[in-house]
Design a protein that fits this description.
Shape: globular
Structural class: mainly beta
Oligomer: single chain
Largest sheet: 6 strands, mixed
Number of domains: 1
Radius of gyration: 12 Å
Strand order of the largest sheet: 3-2-1-6-5-4
């Protein structure tokens, strides 16, 4: 998975990672046979801050220049905060 993740990051448009939606109190879960993340969202253009959401299928993880973990789906990226047990 690391090689695919590096390729996706290299081909992604350059953007300020601090502007990505933020998922806090998150955990990895399996939903309908897919690995997704469930957590509390903030800074998202479509969801209100504080809403619990589940992402689409997770395709990989990377880190930004500050060491924050970034989760990647097919069409979105999320900065991750505190991880909790499911």
């Amino acid at each position: 998975m690391e090689d695919i993740t590096q390729l996706m990051v290299a081909d992604a448009p350059v953007r300020d990672e601090t502007q990505l939606p933020f998922l806090d109190q998150w955990s990895e879960i399996v939903m309908n046979g897919r690995d997704v993340i469930s957590g509390i969202i903030s800074s998202h253009p479509r969801y209100p801050t504080g809403m619990k959401i589940s992402t689409s299928t997770i395709e990989g993880y990377t880190t930004d220049n500050q060491g924050n973990i970034i989760a990647m789906t097919k069409n979105s990226r999320y900065r991750l905060g505190e991880r909790i047990s499911p």
